[in-house]
Amino acid sequence: MKDNLSSINRIKQIMKEHSFRFTKSLGQNFLKDDQVVDQIIEQADLTKDDVVIEVGPGIGVMTEKIAELAGKVIAVEIDKNLIPILNETLKEHDNIEIINEDILNLDLIELGKRYFPNQKPKIIANLPYYITTPIIMKFLESGFSFDSMIVMLQKEVAERIVSGPGNKVYGTISIAVQYYTKAEIVFEVPKDAFIPEPNVTSMVIKLTPHENPIVDVENHRMFLRTIKGAFSTRRKTLLNALSNEFNKDNVRKALELAEINPSERGEKLTIEEFAKLSNAFLKVEKSS
Ligand code: SAM
Fold first, then answer.
1. Domains in the chain and their CATH numbers?
2. For 98-153, what is each residue's pLDDT tens digit?
3. Residue whose CA is at the smallest distance from ligand 1 atom 6
4. Is 104 in the pocket of ligand 1 (CB under 6 A)?
5. What Cα–Cα distance (Å) separates residue 76 from each residue in 28, 73, 81, 82, 123?
6. Distance from the CA of 5 to the center of ligand 1, in angstroms?
7. pTM of this prediction?
């Protein structure tokens, strides 16, 4: 019997057969711990009715197991050297579509129309650390509907994403992600679950899109500008930090309209307060 794909011997054997070398710049740290693979996939609660998008399948360690549980898997892998490997390791499954593309260049809406027009996919990804945030934001901001997103990322980024007001790691990414989804930490993954071992500890998080918006934001771009301004310098008061992004008089007026103390710091504001403030900026900028 063959070792399963996450076995270290099998990974080494496949790499040797295909003369494959890890590309560090693509964040290639493959899972070699079967239990961790199972724990991640369990979070998606898969059935044969599900379509899954996997970002960065690597040699297919997670893809194989996802294909056994789900109806269809769309695996998007940037590295063309991994495509012949995936074609071999996954050849016994006829429900996997391998797409050799940079996920950041892929039109998700088109992908949906083509492969799952009437369904919200589940997303599962052990993400390359160098582009974790752009990938998550792409899924959130593209207007693409999905059921849930299970992602493994750097522990520090996971903690930032789920943190709330008053926490020293609370910032733009916390608000941006929590605006769209309920964000939860699921479990921590030690470095020795990977080959090669990364320099950082990893964490798995689960993002579940809100059914209805949790705050009333009149203009999305203004909301993002408000957050960007508020966190442009952490030590400064809101009045000064927001003045990096807006005219200072307008900052005073908007803070007053939103009933927010100008000497408060951005990291103390809730998502509701950011929404209120961005709606106030919209009014003030229109009338100025
Ligand atoms: N899922 C595999 C596993 O758990 O063993 C591999 C995970 S590895 C951390 C990240 C994978 O994402 C690599 O296979 C890498 O080549 C791929 N990747 C990196 N950047 C990508 C991008 N922009 N679009 C799609 N895949 C990417």
1. 8-209 (3.40.50.150), 220-287 (1.10.8.100)
2. 999 999 999 999 999 999 999 999 999 999 988 999 999 999 998 889 999 999 99
3. 58
4. yes
5. 14, 10, 13, 11, 11
6. 16
7. 0.94
